[in-house]
Amino acid sequence: MPLLIPTSEFNFVSQICKAAGMFAKGIGDDAFVAGDYLISADMSVEETHFIIENGQPASVKNAVEKCLLANFSDINAMGGISKAILFSVCINKNWNKKIRTEIANSVAEICKKHKVKIIGGDTTGGTLGVFSITVFGKKEGRVLLRSAAKTGDDIWVSGTLGLSAASNYSRVPNPPLKLGAKLSKIKGIGACIDLSDSLSDCLNILSLQSKARMVLEEKLIEVKNEFWLNGGEDYELLFTARKSARTALEKIPNINRIGEVKKGAGCILITKNGKEKIIKPSGWRHF
């Protein structure tokens, strides 16, 4: 089975890394590894990632929180805890003082809730609003990389998939922000990625970076909506683990074993009647 390039975005980032000769640990993962520290950056763009509805405070807070949690999730996927952020914002010139105040208050409130310090950033203005965040985290155990899946590993996922897509991406995600650190301390954990994009995309990324075949078993998957495979922005964790880790993992609530890593390439779903279906990357596309 041929390897499928998950997204044009993934391919574009890979081209940059190749051209720059980047070789550092964490390049191509959810965060860059610098000793005991993890660094990641992300952006949320108005009309692409969020909409502020008539200046309503709730929609402002939701937009800010969604962006922050997406960044904290990157650190979580690497096995760390978020510690500090640089928060930069492009202010839409049509946003009034009330909206700007709500943005400032929301950033402070959400960071305080998650014990994350605001250490700086930048501001500018434009025709669309943009939140740009650089988050600094600290690893708790082993760093979890997308390239660490091994033949024979179980495939696990946290939470209920497809909830964000089922709500038309209007809900604020609830990522399991302490799970990555817990996994990093369990012997036998392999690859890990956060489901910012769809399960189908992320499985293909793990396949590509771990040089392995990802096999899902339909009989193991609890399907609660039609978006479980191709919906994005759930920010749950998809990870692999040696079979020796099952006992430890089965004690953790809200995670489920859904398949196995095989020798080869690509991703397939084994249906309940035993047929094999290719899982193509079919999630969110930025461009």
Largest sheet: 7 strands, mixed
What's the rounded overall pLDDT mean? 91
CATH top level class name of the largest domain: Alpha Beta
> What is the CATH third-level topology name of the largest domain?
Phosphoribosyl-aminoimidazole Synthetase, Chain A, domain 2
Secondary structure class reads alpha+beta
How many beta-strand segments? 12
Domain tally: 2
Low-confidence segments: none
The helix content, as a percent range, equals 25-40%
Shape: globular
Order of helices and strands: HEEHEHEEEHHEHEEHEEE
For the termini, the CA-CA separation is: 26 Å
Number of helices: 7
CATH architecture heading of the largest domain = Alpha-Beta Complex
Radius of gyration: 19 Å
